[in-house]
Design goal:
Layout: H1 15-24, H2 40-45, E1 54-55, E2 58-59, H3 66-69, E3 84-88, E4 96-100, E5 106-109, H4 111-119, E6 126-130, H5 142-145, H6 158-167, E7 172-177, H7 183-190, E8 195-199, H8 205-215, H9 219-240, E9 247-252, E10 260-262, H10 268-275, E11 286-287, E12 290-291, E13 309-314, H11 320-328, H12 331-334, H13 337-340, E14 344-348, H14 349-352, H15 357-370
Parallel strand pairs: 5-6, 5-7, 7-8, 9-13, 13-14
Antiparallel strand pairs: 1-2, 3-4, 9-10, 11-12
Helix pairs in contact: 1-9, 4-8, 6-7, 8-9, 9-15, 10-15
Amino acid sequence: MNETVPVLRRRPGRGYARRAARVALPLAAGLALAACGPSPVDMVEYPVTTTPSRMAGEELQRSAEPEESCAPAPAPAEFPGAGTRRVDSTGPGPDSVAVPRSPERILALGVGAVDTACALGLQDLVVGTAGLPHDAAVYLPDPLLALPALDLGGGADAAGIADSSRGLAPDLIVLAGTADLDPALVDVLSGVAPTVVYPGDVLDWSEATESVADAYGRPRAGGDLLLDVIDRARVTEGATTPSDTWVSLVSVADGSGEGARVQDPDTLGSLMLEAVDAGRPPAQRTRAGVRVPPLPESPAVGDELDGDVIFAVVGGRPESEEAAREVFTSDRWRELDAAGANRVFVMDRAVWEGAGPVAARAVLEDIRKSINGIAPDG
């Protein structure tokens, strides 16, 4: 049975990247899901070079290089000069917003906004952030992390946030739109600077990249970022034959109350596994970020956490490593076939649950380096 897996969620009628992605998509989709593990030939042909760092006693696969994550030079302004232009906004608030043709002081409120600024080389234009994960330092450079960070959490005072924003003197604000986004916050921020709301759902990360890049005055460069992710997914798929491997994606010590559980399907890591057409254990199959039931011919076998290889997502809280160590030394974990075969790789939560092209590229590199690998003992 053939299953077509989309690389990027796309909605019709939205600009350069949508048209380009429609051309590139068939090149990265359409392979059949298989249920067998990698052969010894695969292991020789696609060796993996692992890092010496470890997390809670397990090998830590870290492909992201924080100081190299951002583009070294800014993408050229595509609308130079003074004045404004209108761009789409998802709301609450107006459907379009007049923004500077070439903004110079950006308040990036949301991990997708920060990630896209970094990917476009606009990190020096960012004056403040919000929504970055606890361990964002694993893939974003220090200068971005050192910027003032606004707290937009539940119960935050809209007027106070506006005052803090005003002190940063932005000429553009980009804000992640969520189901519980307070319209009053959008209203007061709009009084500080033009405020564009972009899709904050991880399932819409590619549309968010387009929206944010457009607000930054670099829509074509944003489209190129997405095409680069598509190309990297194709390279990863072609180099590692991921459809031949059952990849188990497990969230470890995430504060849910479960020591280890199957990772949510609507996360960037899960979406990138779909993008490279990776095989998944019967209990973990997904489509477009949604869990789907096992195929009739693929009944669940053994522990739902197990697979030919396990990508264990760890981090996000100060106590994550200690809690993960308890999971990795538990009887249940030690009895997993992948654990016994030294085929467990620990992935950074900030990256695998990120949103944006920088995180997406790092996830794909993690997959490429690890999927056919064996973690060293120790």
